[in-house]
Amino acid sequence: MTTKQVCQPAESPLWQGEFSEQDKHDIEQLRAGQAAAIVAGDASVYAELCHDDIQLLIPSKELVSGKTAFLQVEQALFRSASFIGFEKQPALVVRSGDLAYEVGVQQVQIKNQADAAGVYSARQKYTHIFRRTSEGWRFVVLMSNPNE
Q1: What DSSP letter does each residue of 3-48 carry, written as one string?
Q2: Dihedral sign, CA of 57, 60, 66, 67?
């Protein structure tokens, strides 16, 4: 039996800009929520972490714009692969006003991998952009590419 894992990075990223401790906590929770939703294969929960105008830029897929399209793409991805582990290692988080971006590396473990590259690459570089909204920090851009 395979155990699903959601791992958090051992080291903290470099935070640049004016982040309160609450901002840092909320962004860390957003990151953890993303990992948990991916490992659970729950596209609806994942979509709730995103702003309505989410932009998804992942390998082997066209640009995905908006929460409805995001939900459809993620549902299809979760039907084609089961993620058993997802670990993010953010290197840098920078804030300017109500926007922040994060860059880092993520490790993806897949149970029933459809292919070995692209969106299913085991090691990826990523850039995420967050927006602070009345509901808290939300993803507005999710971009990743293979690091292999």
Answers
A1: PPEEE--SSPPEEES---HHHHHHHHHHHHHHHHHHHHT-HHHHHH
A2: negative
pTM for the model stands at: 0.86
In the block, tokens 């395979």 appear at 2
β-pairing verdict for 64-65 and 50-57 = antiparallel
pLDDT tens digit string along 60-101? 889 999 999 999 999 998 888 888 889 999 999 999 999 999
- DSSP letter for each residue of 90-130: EEEEEEETTEEEEEEEEEEEESS-S-SSGGG-SEEEEEEEE
Sign of CA dihedral 101, 76, 32, 147: negative
- Residue 140 CA to chain centroid, in angstroms? 11
Q: Which of 36, 38, 45, 43 is nearest to 75 (CA)?
A: 43
